[in-house]
């Protein structure tokens, strides 16, 4: 009988202890075929697994996640082709262990949402987890603020400065290039490409479209499948675009970048849309009952405490919050 079977069903569905999750990730790295483990290491790993039921459960989950996402690099000592700043083997190992340990700390229910994410997002140069925000300074001095659940690659060479946004949202402040001639600064999403013209702007990629909003300077936006679909977007304007075209330009929403200060703002927003945005900052499933989906909400909410935001809904709307588990929450009619 597998060691994990000795855990009761609730324990098997619970998130793992972060320490055990990291140990499982480290063991998987040590006995990964690319690491060429010897018999002593394989035996030590087997002993660790057998020493506690939660160790075996963590090991099984680690193997499943690695099989799904390919987190452990198959060639640990080989630099990534075409990457001007390829990571060293040790950097690859540390990044892989960190990603896998993070996934292992989530409950299985939470992982269902992550299984739909593109593999490139997990292999990205920069990534944030659910509920995490991060500041990044790039090689040319440009600054990037990453919202929750975001992932991008930075490709700098002799001809370009390119960010490839796989998912999520970035606030970008471009720096003057020290090279001569200056290399263009571009952001690429699945829907097209944005060229910065000395600017401060946000790019968001969710569902089947991308959003861009300009605070300073200007950007040029081009749809992926139609080179003629190009537009200069000036400061204090925003637009949405897909691979096939650009929507109409609109005035910039004043609270567009409130997330950089840890604030979620709503202005007479449908509750269903508010919950969809809130769920990006919260691990697990957050469901809004269709019976209350069209209720309207306004206000500014601190993202560092999403439970508090949910409790605030009860005080302002005719709803109740049902916690089936910590990671499975429903908003229903009161």
Automatic annotation (TrEMBL):
Q: What is this protein called?
A: Anti-sigma factor FoxR
Q: Kindly name one Pfam family recorded for this protein.
A: DUF4880
Q: What is the lineage of its organism?
A: Bacteria, Pseudomonadati, Pseudomonadota, Betaproteobacteria, Burkholderiales
What InterPro entries does UniProt report for this protein, alphabetically? FecR, FecR_N, Ferrdict_sens_TM
Domain FecR protein per the UniProt entry, residue ranges: 125-220
- Which residues does the UniProt record annotate as the domain FecR N-terminal? 22-65
What GO MF terms are annotated?
sigma factor antagonist activity
